[in-house]
Amino acid sequence: MLKNDTLIRALLRQPTAYTPVWLMRQAGRYLPEYNQTRARAGSFLGLCKNPDFATEVTLQPLARFALDAAILFSDILTIPDAMGLGLHFTEGEGPKFERPLRNEWEIRNLFVPDPDEHLRYVVDAVAQIRRALADEVPLIGFSGSPFTLACYMVDGGASTDLRMLKTMLYGRPELLHHILDVNCRAVTAYLNAQIEAGAQVVMIFDTWGGMLSAAAYQEFSLSYLERVVAGIKRSYGGDTVPSIVFTKGGGLWLEDIAAIGCDAVGIDWTMDIGTARKRVGKRVALQGNLDPTILFAEPRVIREQARHILTAFGHGEGHVFNLGHGVSQFTPPEHVATLVDAVHELSPAFH
Fold first, then answer.
1. Domain hosting residue 267, numbered range
2. Which stretches in the chain have pLDDT values below 50?
3. What does the pLDDT read at residue 158?
4. Looking at the whole model, is its pTM more than 0.85?
5. Domain of 249: which CATH number?
6. 163 an active-site residue?
7. Which of 75, 81, 206, 268 is the catalytic position?
8. Exactly one of 38, 130, 227, 303 is catalytic; which is it?
9. Based on the structure, what is the number of domains in the chain?
10. How far apart are CA 321 and CA 101, in angstroms?
């Protein structure tokens, strides 16, 4: 039984004594100990693909900060890498694929990786992290969304305009739907494998969904998010497994996201969380939504901004405090400690 189940209870909109807090990318380059482990691993992928290293870096932020959850250390692109697209990382340029999907025959040959075979290192890492946590706090598993994975798979890496992807979307939509169908089945199997290995919460990162038009978002992103949510296990071993869906830039479609069956919706910093709460009512919990760059400010400002978000959400249940996106690699670690402590100190007044 979990010693600290505050996150689970908040995601299920149950009473809690305070607002739980964890941070996207809480294990990362802003921590000196992470950089030391990454150097020992030899590369970012070497870090991800070794369960011992993945466990080590997953636990590092919990040793520093009083966080209410651990999140699996991995990458959203493990699925397309397992499909054979040749993932690699270039310093300063981010992820790249050696074989992006440009030809129809490549797209038709896509397959759903078997998590127990092609992604065994992730499954093993989840199990190892869960054992190491000893039920102190819950473990969050995750995946990229079908659409976000497709963006990298078609464009070959991060893109400011998704030119290749959108060219396919409008010119050969049936090909993109085929990619998304395969990705959808792969993400569902992957998340279920993580749940079976010990993940107690799962989150789907739809990083690029906000770059779509309203109609395209519904057809090419949200519909597949809904399929994934419907296909993942809602409970395992007698315990409920909550799900979180986060579309960066998706505030325009908040009600639609809340209606797909997930337990919580993540929001970025561009939306007022009080307004978001009024819009979704009691349908879902909300996760967010401090601007990550506020962590560059002095501690007094960080506390003020944390209080502002807590006040905006207001009294009651269903709030998980988080950033509106991941921790920057340039963030001072002591400022993260300021934020976590501020949330724990200030939030009981709202419960």
1. 6-350
2. none
3. 86
4. yes
5. 3.20.20.210
6. no
7. 75
8. 38
9. 1
10. 37
